[in-house]
Structures are given as structure tokens and as C-alpha cells.
Amino acid sequence: MLTLDKVYQASYILKEVIRKTDLIRASHICEESKLYLKTENLQVTGSFKVRGAYFKMSQLSEEEKKRGVIACSAGNHAQGVALAAKKNGIPAIICLPDSAPISKVEATKSYGAEVRLVNGCYDDAYAEAMRLKDEKGYTFIHPFNDENVIAGQGTIGLEILDQLPDVDAVIVPVGGGGLISGIAHTVKTLRPECKVYGVQAAGAPSMANSLREHEILTLPAVSTVADGIAVKTPGDLTYACCEQYVDEIVTVSDDEISSAILALIEQQKMITEGAGAVSVAAAMFGKVPIEGKKVVCVLSGGNIDVTILSRVIKRGLLTSGRTCNLNIELIDKPGQLLGVSKIISDLRGNVISVHHERSSEGSDINGCYLRLLLETRDYAHVQEIRGALLDAGYHLID
């Protein structure tokens, strides 16, 4: 059974391996609460996963270490296992879904582990890892459904309570549930009045659905920018722990996740992956009741592929009203573009791109379309520009 003593044991073993990550006050992300960021995105390997993986491997017998270990992961657990194996001289094979970001694949290889890419998502990689485990006799290092792994993740709870003893709530990303299980068990045991909220991507709500229906459910598919928490089925150990200790699990959309990533970059100079930002997204968009409370958002990882980051920033700009698209139907005559440009300029909008085309079949023969991409301050600014264009008689097409 998972016990607080085991979490303390993990903390002692990990102190020479991991970084005690900073707890940083985030003043502007959520004005109605005192928000703090637990920066596991700055952890060794760029993710909290090294905690559970290293502690689990420290508990293996010499015979198990000699045979080697195998793991499966969307990326971060892979790096944790690879680093732990390297430090302990243990052979390691990692099965990753072929959709894992290239940066995570290459980082895993850099620690000396053998990487095998598997078609599909995390659950497909898991099936392949179990096949190899049975065939070769490797020891399987589960990414979340293991008491020692959960205990390792629980050390984050110890650090939070040490850094902010009067914390009112902790918001935690949830995939398979190992992170929140460890944190919730630790925090609720030592400070029962503290709330623990979990956050999943709307495209992968496996734990949220399971808790709502009071049984472990498997999703037919998952789809989210937060690849690190795209898990179809929660574990039985993590499900039981969440049912006992977690107050609520909510979901956030990919647009909300993108907005949170952008806010962390701009306001806190923090790079997080999608999974790492879901806790902040839940706070930003009012998914949990934290008004007037001291709240810790766990930033679980920062290993985002730069190509994905550029797309996420673009999505976040649109979602937060920092950019907007306008499609305007005009009469094709001189001066129309000048009139539109003057309105936008007077309201301090910045035109990023312009596309002009003649009308298509079925529209006015003298008509044309003007498509603009604007840089704006926020949604209010967007509505101000749209309103001015409408007042001037222009026809906007949504």
C-alpha cells in the first residue's frame, strides 16, 4: 500500500538526483486568487516523471536490474526511466507512440536507452511493452499505476507543503493519474483541509469519466494538444487513489490550453508543454472554485516540440483575442480598401496580412472579398473594430 512513510523514503532517495523545483508567485494569470506555480517544467529531464521512475528503479533487486527494464511513454516518463537506468547502469528499452514529439524521442535516446516507436497512442505503446516484457523477462516500469512510482511523484506534495504551508488548493494535470495520486495522498494526509483538483484535456477525459461513472472506463480514442496526458484508460491504483483523495477533476479545451501556454510564456517567461499548462488553464478559465485562495498550479513538464509550440502560440493568440480574422464583403470599386484601412488604423489595429479576391459564383457580380489578419489587444478591441466597420456600412462575413 502507498503510505506517507514511502513518500518520505522516496524524498530521501531522490534528494541527490532531482531538483527541488521553485514555487513562483504568478501575480497576473488569475487576479482573483493568489496563484503559485510549482515549476516541474524546470525539473531534471524537463518533467516530474523522473521522480517516480528513479524511485521505482531504486527499489529493484540486483537480479531485476541485471535483466534490464522496459517502459512505455508519451515521452516524459521515457526520459525519466532512461536517466535512472543510465545512473544505475541498467539496460533500458523504451516504447513510445510514433506521435511523440521528436524532441522527446531524441532526448530519450540521448540518455542511452533503446527507443522503439509504436504506431498509435500511449496504450498501443503499452501493449508492445508488455509483449516484450513477457518475451524477454524485462522489468516493466509503469508510468503511473505503480505504488513506488506514485510515491515518487508524491514528493512534489511534500515540497509544496514545505514551500507554502498554508496552501488552500493544488491543481494538478491528470493523464493516467500517477502525479495527482501521489500529490493528493500526501497533501490530504498532511493537510486534509487543502483541496486537490485534477485537470484533463477535453479530448482525453479518461479519469474524469471514470470517476463520474464510478468505474474504470476506456476511451475509444484520444485527441489533444496535451500529448503527455493523452491516456485512454486510468490505472486501478490511481483510480482508487483519486476516488478517495481528489476533490474534483475538470477538463479544459485545446484552445484554453493554448491560451495558458501563451500566458505562461508572456507573463512568467515559462515554457510548458500542453500537459504542463492544463492546471493554469483551469485557473484562468474558472474551471475550479479558487477565488480568494492560495493556489498552487503544478506545471508538470516543459518538453514541447518547437514546431508544435509555434502552432500553439498562433492558436493561443486567436483564442485570447490577440489576433483576429476579418472577412469583409465589398463592392469592387476604388477607395474601399482605403476606407477599411482607415477605420482599423484609427482604432490602433495592426494589419498582419491582406488577401483580396473577386466574388465567387452566386454573389454580386460587382462584389469582392477582403480577408484580413489583424493584431489586436484583446476581445474587446476586436469587437470595437468589428463594430466600427459595421457602423460604416461594411458587411462582415463570419
Q: Describe the largest sheet.
A: 6 strands, mixed
- Write the H/E string, N to C: HEEHHEHEHEHEHEHEHHEHHEHEHEEHE
How much is the radius of gyration in Å? 24 Å
Q: N-to-C terminal Cα separation, in Å?
A: 56 Å
Helical residue percent?
40-55%
Shape: elongated
Alpha-beta classification: alpha/beta
- Order the strands across the largest sheet as they lie in space: 1-2-10-7-8-9
Mean pLDDT, all residues: 92
Helical region count?
15
Instruction: Indicate the low-confidence ranges by residue numbers.
Output: none
The fraction of residues assigned to DSSP E strands is 15-25%
Number of strands: 14
Structure explained in plain terms:
By secondary structure, this protein is of the alpha/beta class. The protein is built from 15 helices and 14 strands. The chain has helices spanning 4-14, 49-58, 62-67, 76-88, 102-110, 122-136, 147-163, 178-190, 206-213, 236-245, 254-268, 274-284, 306-319, 336-346, 379-391, and strands at residues 23-26, 34-39, 69-72, 92-97, 114-118, 139-140, 169-173, 195-201, 248-252, 294-299, 323-331, 350-358, 367-375, 395-396. It has a 6-stranded mixed beta sheet, sandwiched between helices. The chain is elongated. The chain starts with a helix and ends with a strand.
Structure at a glance:
It contains 15 helices and 14 strands.
Descriptors:
14 strands; single chain; four-stranded parallel sheet; 44% helix; six-stranded mixed sheet; alpha/beta; 398 residues
